[in-house]
């Protein structure tokens, strides 16, 4: 089944309330965030195919701003990593990552080490389309400079 088509209403109809309940227990094929977005978009009278024209305009502006070699550093989220269950409570922070999915630009998540409480820190490295090599190169340099991924606990093998 095409999950995008199902959620966006272009495929077979799904019961959003039922899918939401299933998602809470990890039984849905959809994330809570996508179900919530689908539910909100059904209630928004301005949500239609014309919104995609706005996305293309925004993408053009963003890419013009970056140029062929620009890099945009953006937080990975509104806060450091959450405990496992807390992500359900704070599910509206998906905007930190989904905006770049909508724009169709390459992003590399770069680990920067741990904060004073031992929680992982990171940043997203974003570039214009087809510049994945730039995001990877910058992420590699940042990772080297800031310590990169650090195990949050001792791992015994």
TrEMBL record:
The keyword Nucleotide-binding does not apply. The keyword Iron does not apply. It comes from the Eukaryota. Residues 73-136 form the Amidase domain. GO terms for molecular function: hydrolase activity. Keywords: Hydrolase. One of its GO terms (cellular component) is endomembrane system. PANTHER family: FATTY-ACID AMIDE HYDROLASE, FATTY-ACID AMIDE HYDROLASE 2. This is Fatty-acid amide hydrolase 2-like protein. It comes from Leptotrombidium deliense. The lineage of its organism: Eukaryota, Metazoa, Ecdysozoa, Arthropoda, Chelicerata.
């Amino acid at each position: 089944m095409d999950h995008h088509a199902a959620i966006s209403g272009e495929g077979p109809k799904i019961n959003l309330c039922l899918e939401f309940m299933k998602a809470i227990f990890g039984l849905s094929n959809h994330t809570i965030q996508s179900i919530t977005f689908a539910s909100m978009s059904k209630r928004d009278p301005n949500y239609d195919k014309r919104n995609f024209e706005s996305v293309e305009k925004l993408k053009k502006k963003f890419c013009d701003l970056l140029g062929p070699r620009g890099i945009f550093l953006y937080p990975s989220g509104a806060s450091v990593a959450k405990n496992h269950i807390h992500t359900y409570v704070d599910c509206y922070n998906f905007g930190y990552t989904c905006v770049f999915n909508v724009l169709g630009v390459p992003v590399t998540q770069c680990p920067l080490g741990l904060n004073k409480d031992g929680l992982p820190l990171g940043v997203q490295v974003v570039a214009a389309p087809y510049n994945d090599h730039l995001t990877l190169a910058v992420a590699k340099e940042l990772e080297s400079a800031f310590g990169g991924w650090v195990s949050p606990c001792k791992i015994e093998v």
